[in-house]
Amino acid sequence: MRKRAICAAALLGVVIAASAGCSGDEPLTTPDGSPISTTVTRVAEVNIVSADRDYAKTCLAPTAADPGATDVTRIVVTDPTLLDALCALGIGDKAVAVTAAPGSVPAYLGPQLNAVPTIGTTPDAAAVSEADADLVLTTPQTTSSARPFGAVRAVTIPDGTWQEQFQAVADAVGRSEAGRARLAEFSTEARKTGRRMDASHTQVSLVRFGPDSETIAGTDTFAGQILAEIGVQRPAAQRVPDSFPVDSEDFRDAEGDLIYVSWEGEEGQKHAEKVLLSDEWLNLGASMWKRVLAVNDQIWYDSSGLAAAWLVLNDVKGSLDGNS
Predict the structure, then answer these.
(1) Residue 2 to residues 216, 259, 263, Cα–Cα distance (Å)
(2) Which of 290, 294, 217, 301 is CA-nearest to residue 253?
(3) Residue of 292, 214, 290, 218 whose CA lies nearest to 247
(4) pLDDT per residue as tens digits for the range 115-173
(5) How far apart are CA 240 and CA 8, in angstroms?
(6) Boundaries of domain holding 23
(7) For residue 293, which phi and psi values (nearest 5 degrees)?
(8) What's the pTM value of the predicted model, to 2 decimals?
(9) Which PANTHER family has this protein been placed in (predicted)?
(10) Cys staple from 231: which of 65, 77, 169, 199, with CB 3.0 to 4.6 Å?
(11) Which pLDDT value is given to residue 249?
């Protein structure tokens, strides 16, 4: 890791709205019994966008099956990423099992889908029987997990753009029309948002922190694609498809009218806290003008579906013209 002059304030770490004390304590409450929020809203003097987001509201309203199509009722997915499409189609309640390890369902999909049983990549006969699936959705990389389900109809969702994969899932569950309508609705709203916020005149920088690294996110990343659909501009140095490491001591490649930062896990956050309070970072124009905001790395980069796309769009709606 490159050595930088770190402000003494870095020792303060994360700034928290309120703290519940020791992990074993009861939640803090007001005199009337109302819970006191313990949401972390700032890290290293940078506001977190949508810090109080309610993941129970991630999934969209239910869609109907295409006319004449037989509606599926019990769906198994062999890759947790496929759940995003079911969430965006409003049929998460039809998911009955995920052939993956516990804890592999993305948190942003909300409590309903996080409650779906994860039965391992090679489910046993009891788990297969309990699932009682009438459709198995799989990917080219996880087709082996569909084999224990025998004669149950299985559909492999091919590799492609996130829009193509969403539509493939919609086709597989008999919701082709709804899939096209939902994609069109998102594109329309993204363009409207861009015009309303004059996005074409804002250069947005995307920076991700790892345990000991800083990376500029390329235009081919999920977040980069959503920003492009909105019409947001990127700084000249960042108008490349692939992500690349920050190699300048003064972070000049990270400069922008607004900088969205994120971090990968706890170690990434620790590194981010140090960098965001360093002299080099604080000398950036965006930092001096309080135009640095933190976003959820899992949603902006690790995800790639319509439900996640709406969350990124809503983040931009609430922050593109705001201050840190």
Answers:
(1) 16, 21, 17
(2) 217
(3) 214
(4) 999 999 999 999 999 999 999 999 999 999 999 999 999 999 999 999 999 999 999 99
(5) 35
(6) 8-52+198-317
(7) -130, 145
(8) 0.87
(9) IRON III DICITRATE-BINDING PERIPLASMIC PROTEIN, IRON(III) DICITRATE-BINDING PERIPLASMIC PROTEIN
(10) 199
(11) 78
